[in-house]
Amino acid sequence: MSIEISAKSITPVRLAYGNLQQRFGDKKPASRYQEAVYDIQPTANFQYRPLWDKNHDIYDVSKTAIVMEDWYSFADPRQYYYGSYTIARAKQQEVAEHNFAFVDKRDLFDAVPEAVKQAVRDVLIPLRHVEWAANMNNCQITDECYGSNFSSVAMFNAMDRLGMAQYVTRIGLLLDGNEETTLDAAKQAWMDAPQWQGLRHAIEDMFVLDDWFELMVAQNFVLDGLVFPLLYDRFEKKLTQEGGSTVAMLTEFMDDWYQETVRWTNALAKVTAKESTENQALLSSWVSKWMDRLSIALEPIAIEAFGDDGANELVEVKAELLDRLAKQGVTV
Amino acid sequence: MSDKKNTVFLILQDNEDARPIIEAVEQDNPDANIQYQPGMVRMEAAGRLLVNRVTVEENLGREWDVQELHLNLISLGGNIDEDEDKFEISWR
Amino acid sequence: MPAKKLNLRKRYELLTRGMGWETTYQKMDDVFPYDSFEGIKITDWDKWEDPFRLTMDSYWKFQAEKEKKLYAVIDSFAQNNGQTNLACASYLSAIKLFITGVTPLEYGAHRGFAHLGRHFRGDGARIACQMQAIDELRHAQTQVHTISHYNKHFSGLHDPFHQFDRVWYLSVPKSFIEDAMSSGPFEFITSISFAFEYVLTNLLFVPFMSGAAYNGDMATVTFGFSAQSDESRHMTLGLEIIKFMLEQHEDNLPIIQRWMDKHFWRAYRLLGLVAAMQDYMLTNSPMSWKEAWEVYFVENGGALFEDLSRYGLKMPKYHELATAEADHISHQIWSVFCSLGNATGFHTFLPTEEKMAWLSEKYPDTFDKYYRPRFEYWAEQKKAGTFEYQKGLPQLCQVCQIPMVFTEVQTDPMQISYRVTEHGGDKYHFCSDGCKDIFEHEPEKYVQAWLPVHQIYQGNCGGPTLPEVLDWYKFKPEDSGDYIGSKDYHRWQEWKGADKKVKQA
Ligand SMILES: [Fe+2]
Ligand SMILES: [Fe+2]
Ligand SMILES: [Zn+2]
User: Which helix (H) or strand (E) segment is C419 a member of?
Assistant: First the structure.
């Protein structure tokens, strides 16, 4: 019945919400992404100052030194809103689940050389703590940032990091028939072994950073930009050559995730740098500060992973990252 | 102390997916009071209400993960105890 | 070697605990700076137990399934012009109030839980809060998506977020969520997870969504029930955190009792808007506010507090008054909206004969005696063309920010309830002892309130005249006033007229 009416009188009186008409014009309907992330965050007339921070409003642009005329200049190239995000991750987890089940059922780790397994224990498993920290840091960004586009992208990122910390944990469990020995040893190394202390120290310093955008740079631009290519990509390839392709099956999620994530961090770097020379200078100084700090911290881990080639691998990864950031307008 | 047990409740969407669960609640909780309201089904009982995995699986004819309950859950009242085999709501 | 089988509990523990660590390069108190200033004592965060053991992979799996179902309904609703199946377009006043007043609360909860998800010291509690933070983002986004189609066809839905920050009656929900968000993390979770979600949320969502089903609004039913499936997790988190805090240290009890009293009253006042929505805005109401209050607060809430009495927690202060008010508040609040209907972003309408008969039946002690005469009088005035909207702006309660409309229901229901206190040489006004108590405990907080009426008088809201203020709100002329004769009304008549013709043919 209603379909018959529709032909005649059911023409829309407007095509999009007012804020989206203002941003994108009133000629066509807004996308789901636009509806979901633009302008939802309150911007004015705050009722009370936070009890623990009398110097800021609940949402406050002055929580970072970065200045944007419009905080919604940044758009996620993946166009993720909650629905498209969970549906994408659900597909990836289905593959991961299948891979984990396959490795488990066929006892594939039995065929992996002991040296490779030990390398996984020493290098990959402690990364669960790194992912856990990345979860905290992205949650911090979700908490402190300005704009619903930022809080949305940071929230998804935070949950991704929890998911990956859990996948690394499951690799640790799978290695030892669900015993916790590997996890315990990795935690011990994370807390005490000299090769991890530089990184742990840097990460703990990131926990107390004041400026959320600096944290964004340190965590999502620099640390991830070094760790993922170095350890989930190059190191995995090395393990595969040494008979550890099983490991690569279990970290496929992380590989795909990083390829995808680079797209929005690139877009963010670009739009922020383009805004002003002041922003560009800030980004550059943060990148160089954290690049120095984190590449020094990662060196002993690179050596643990690659032996004598370690330092060189790290230099290459660092150069690639600097090159990529320079393409977005962030030069050091 | 009185013997009167306070009411616990579980509300599910009124749809095909929830049917086998609602039937399982009926089977496993003979004293439960089941009310059909617009769009939803409210199940109440004195003190305790149990959703049993095995019963749902019998009604459904396939394996069922207790966490699937969340897909059709609208509300509940009581302390929750969830594990692989059951979802239990109770007031002590 | 055959792998040891892990049960759900153990597996979950390994996947959520032990990844965090005691920091040594930075002090734990600097990494988690906000979880001690409120005075809540936690001696062992490891005692925290999650009722639901969702790892991220199952979270993605189940939530994606919910989202697929929801968007299938939203798409088909739009394609088939589902809005034409409503009981009446006047029903949409409820949806207008919902997206301008409730959806922004979802977003606020998202940010508030992200704050807790970063700043609670316990790993398990942090993860639970993060999952809620992303769920609440979901709710805000799915609501915007669902209501988008209505925005294309009806007035009053076009600028919900601009309005939330400005409109006089929307400062009620805004001040509620910002009160919680500007508190410490334990108070925030007591407010939102326990007082609001566990004790009162059923009063918002269950009758409201059931009401949507009853009025042919399948889109809202679907997002509402889908959100509720997350809400059950949130409610359970609320109960767990309260039990956890109470079990951790006996000194926590008085603090929690005070927060409970405060946020119960705050959330209850906010729900006054829902009461009006339920009894008056819904064309057909499946359940009255009073009935919902009896079931969800008196009965279910009573059972909850009986369970918690073993920790020494008592029913929230003034709960008896709230129960006594159940006979009154929906009528009082709807009356305010009707008398200021030229300044609301949704349409108002007087109850029909049929509706009044229903109200008499549901409110036998109060409706005919106190409220029917008022509505009938206004109806006569409208007929005679002499009805006028209230001139001048109402005085707002300094805490809940609702106009002074509540009455002394326990002594004289015709007498406005009015309280006053002095602070720093200024007088502050309140709707109730509940709101006055809240102020007196933290005057430095509530003197900051951004009260829309004061702001209008101070010239901060677009100008001194009503049209200027409404323009500043981005209210369009067709958004306000009576439903009868409005643009929405005419459109609806056109569709229904066409509908009749099709049926006759
Ligand atoms: Fe919500
Ligand atoms: Fe919630
Ligand atoms: Zn008040």
Answer: strand C419-423
